[in-house]
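Friendly challenge for the regulars: who can give me the structure tokens for this chain first? No prize, just bragging rights.
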Amino acid sequence: VETLVQKLTRNELLLSSIVDSTTDLIWTVDPVEFRMLTFNRGLRDYFRESAHIELKVGQPIEELFFKEDARRMWHAFYRRALREDIFSVEYDMVYAERMLLLSFHSMKNEGEVFAISSFGRDITAQKKAEAALAASEARYRLIVENAPVGIFQRHVDGVFEYANPELLRQNGCSTLDELNALYGAPLSRWSSEERYREYMDLLRRDH
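First reply, four minutes later:
Bragging rights claimed.
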């Protein structure tokens, strides 16, 4: 029969295996001097490969970051964790061209903080994709805004939701409100209310 100690040991080994197998960076520091308490393989490899620093239990921030502004920033992160219990922040890594989403959590036992846990998830690819999408959307808008033909987007009920400058010019309007006022209420654009309702039903079915 498995004893309680054996169960606890097995559970700790399983947890350690899970923590070490993830690509996320995971570590804990003490809540007073912010010295390293525990760290996973991902964080160890990052410092070893990118900064040639061997992580050790008990290391202070000053041994991990050489620039004073970086040290101040990490002290501020941990102090904020103590104030707010939980918070997240985007962070550009010092020793690698990567961006992390850092999550900090004050770990408590009977109301007293005994450690601060930290999780770093690599969001470099996500941020690059977001930047590329924003650039693509900006280029598309520039093309549409300067197009020599009228371009518009309308709601299913016929209301103009967007019109480029050329379409406004063609209709003698300067704003979207003026364009919608020019064409009247959606219902007024149909020969009968019945035709309008048929059109709306058709759009809803297709959608």
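The first strand starts at residue 25 and ends at 29. The mean pLDDT is 87. Your move, everyone else.
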